[in-house]
Amino acid sequence: MSRTPHGVHRRRSQIVAAGLAAFGVLASFFVISSLADREQVVAVARTVSVGSVIRVEDVTPAQLPRDSGLAGLAWSEVGRVVGQTAATTLLPGQIVVPQSLGAAPVPGPGQAVVGIAVSAGLAPSTALGRGDRVAIIDTTTGGSGTLGEVLAEATSGAQIRTIDIVVDAADAAGVAALSRSGQAAVVLLEDR
User: Fold this and answer.
1) CA 163 from chain center: how many Å?
2) Cis peptide before 61 (omega within 30 of 0)
3) How far is 96 from 73, CA to CA, in rounded Å?
4) Across residues 25-31, what is the average pLDDT?
5) Averaged over 170-181, what is the pLDDT?
6) Rounded to an integer, what distance in angstroms lies between the CA atom of residue 147 and that of residue 132?
7) Distance between CA atoms of 141 and 113, rounded to whole angstroms?
8) Burial group, residue 106, by CB count within 10 angstroms (0-12, 13-18, 19+)
9) What is the pLDDT of residue 85?
10) Are the CB atoms for 178 and 138 separated by under 8 Å?
11) Distance of alpha carbon 168 from the chain centroid
């Protein structure tokens, strides 16, 4: 038998083996570089409602590509997230961004949230937004009213709006009674 066919076959095997080895090295490099090009960020583990305090069990680490364009908070900042108030409703899998966090739990110390039910004509016709400063006025007596800050607003029926307002805890019972009597008016103040 001739040595050439056997030698050629051996050479082809060596070329194929070298090609596979090079492919393996390139594939490994690609996988390692793509993993190294990620950052660990804070993600939401379970739903956190707006205004709720974020607890450690509410968050989880997630991997995010560095070039994704998302400005998630780094996992090293998880201590900055836990204990904050959710500025919006946070859903599982969502990446936590600085705008997701509020300043303090609502209601804060010395505060209460009271739902004011008002009919048409007893509140501005435009929607009130979170943080709007308002006065709650007794329509039977007038006066300066109780100051508060809008937390949320909902419409229940064609003519009734319910506005959640943060007030001083000392004023909460009076504001609730005023709402129950149907004599409350909500006035939007200029200093929003």
Assistant:
1) 21
2) no
3) 6
4) 66
5) 90
6) 11
7) 23
8) buried
9) 86
10) yes
11) 26
In this structure, what token pair is assigned to residue 51? 């205004």
Distance CA 88, CA 111 (A): 20
Q: Is 50 helix (H, G, I), strand (E, B) or coil?
A: coil
Half-sphere exposure of 135 (CA within 13 A, CB side): 11
Phi, psi of 184 (to 5 degrees): -90, 135
Tens-digit pLDDT profile for residues 128-138: 888 889 999 99
**What token pair was written down for 143?**
């006066």
pLDDT at 62: 93
116 and 135 Cβ atoms separated by less than 8 Å: no
Pairwise CA distance, residues 7 & 131, whole Å: 83
The verdict on whether omega for the bond into residue 5 sits within 30 degrees of 0, i.e. cis, is no
Reading the block at residue 1, the tokens are 């038998």
User: What is the per-residue pLDDT across 109-130, written as a single tens digit (0 to 9) for each?
Assistant: 889 999 998 888 888 888 888 8
Q: Where are the alpha helices (DSSP H) in the chain?
A: 3-36, 78-81, 169-181
How many angstroms separate the CA atoms of 153 and 128, rounded? Answer: 7
Name 155's bridge partners.
161
Look at residue 181 and tell me whether its pLDDT is greater than 90.
Answer: no
What is Dmax (Cα atoms) for the chain? Answer: 118
